[in-house]
Write a structure and sequence with these properties.
Pfam families: Glyco_hydro_1. This protein has 429 residues and is an alpha/beta fold. The protein is built from 16 helices and 15 strands.
């Protein structure tokens, strides 16, 4: 049944009250970033260019004309950052490794020892402070050489290079890193990422004792009404967000709704692919920020991704009121009850896998005239985290195997095409 407007302050039992006792003793609380967004030091330590280094050079690609050449300078200031994490009581840090710091051209022919040294220092510093590293191998910063020379992820050739890169990371860091994420929000790259899973399980897992998974992003899709058409539209929306990546792992093929609508445009999974993908994740990472109503729409005029689903996303109740309080980004509404629902959905559909919330947070506008005291008086963000953590706690009471939560982001950072115009930090930088 669709969530009713009258239930907005507590749909499905989600409250605003939450405390540490609401979570298991071994539950992991952490913060998250990604390499390009925080490291900086673009031309230091032997690093090669990624697609984002080049993309952000071009005029009008980034909202404020900025780039990640310096970012928050974590490359030089990681000790300060780790010290701050420790003072705040976080037990884990999710960060990504820059592929081009390990192999500057992405090819895996010659390892960059300066890059190895940097990540060794970061990992060791974290462990000295009692903070566990959760490492993402790929968070959107593809080596530019691979993009130019072979078309990046559109080429099957890239699989072997990603596997070489992953193997180098497992070999150099796996004695201390016990939680690996292949690809952040895979979109087109889900199958390719499992070359890394195969390498890890065959060569390293037995000796190192770690686990490896992937991170997907998903809004909750709430049917706009109780009509069958809207319910099918919402289910289809979830198939295109979650099922695209998880169904091949747990069920051996893409969701039926995708096969019916996309047909031959979907990659064909060979028997070898299916064998590689079968149960090819030790845990599921979920990036979740917001929720939308989804309604059936036969004549959707939006981009093809929505047309083929015959659905449209709506941000208002049938009464016309917003689905929740809006953050800075036009797509981000505060809807904690949707968080509980998506966690329960994953547990029910995919046999209750170990789950980590690998990103969750909200943004606010950056203004040059903002007064520091006003920025720090961050009531909306506090309310966001309280209600969303309460939703996680309720999902755990529902029986969902949620094992950790990572706030996005630890620091203000380069927010991709938005540059530095949005603040997503969980702690003022």
């Amino acid at each position: 049944m669709a969530c009713r407007r009258s239930e907005v302050n507590g749909c499905d039992g989600v409250s605003e009250e939450v405390a540490r006792r609401d979570f298991p003793k071994d539950f992991v609380f952490g913060v998250a970033t990604s390499a390009y967004q925080v490291e900086g030091a673009r031309r230091e330590g032997g690093k090669g260019d990624s697609i984002w280094d080049v993309f952000s050079e071009k005029k009008d690609n980034i909202k404020d004309g900025s780039n990640g050449d310096i970012a928050v300078d974590q490359y030089h200031r990681y000790k300060e950052d780790v010290e701050l994490m420790a003072k705040l009581g976080f037990g884990a840090y999710r960060f990504s490794i820059s592929w081009t710091r390990i192999f500057p051209d992405g090819l895996g022919t010659k390892i960059n020892e300066d890059g190895i040294t940097y990540y060794n220092n970061l990992i060791n510093c974290l462990l000295e402070k009692g903070i566990q590293p959760y490492v993402t191998l790929y968070h959107w910063d593809l080596p530019y050489f691979l993009h130019e020379s072979m078309g990046g992820w559109l080429s099957e050739k890239i699989v072997q290079y990603f596997a070489l890169y992953a193997e180098a990371c497992f070999e150099k860091f796996g004695d201390r890193v016990k939680h690996w994420i292949t690809i952040n929000e895979p979109r087109q790259t889900a199958v390719n990422g499992y070359a890394a899973v195969s390498v890890y399980r065959k060569k390293f897992k037995g000796a190192q004792g770690g686990v490896i998974g992937l991170t997907i992003d998903c809004e909750w899709a709430e049917p706009f009404s109780d009509t069958l058409e809207d319910k099918i539209a919402a289910d289809t929306w979830l198939d295109f967000q979650l099922g695209w990546y998880l169904d091949p792992i747990y069920y051996g093929d893409y969701p039926l709704a995708m096969r019916e609508r996309v047909g031959d445009l979907l990659p064909k999974l060979s028997e070898a692919d299916k064998e590689l993908l079968q149960n090819a994740t030790d845990f599921v990472g979920l990036n979740h920020y917001t929720t939308r109503f989804v309604a059936h729409a036969e004549n959707q005029r939006d981009i093809h991704f929505y047309q083929v689903q015959e659905s449209e996303r709506l941000a208002k109740w049938q009464s016309g009121e917003p689905i929740g309080e809006r953050a800075a980004s036009e797509w981000l509404y505060v809807v904690p009850w949707g968080f509980q629902k998506v966690l329960n959905y994953i547990a029910k559909r995919y046999h209750n896998p170990p789950l980590y919330v690998t990103e969750n947070g909200m943004d606010q506008e950056e203004t040059e005239t903002a007064i520091l005291e006003e920025v720090l008086d961050d009531k909306m963000r506090v309310r966001y985290y309280q209600t969303y953590l309460a939703a996680v706690a309720q999902a755990i009471r529902d029986g969902v195997d949620v094992r950790g939560y990572f706030a996005w982001s630890f620091l203000d950072n380069f927010e991709w095409a938005e540059g530095y115009t949005k603040r997503l930090m969980s702690k003022m930088s």
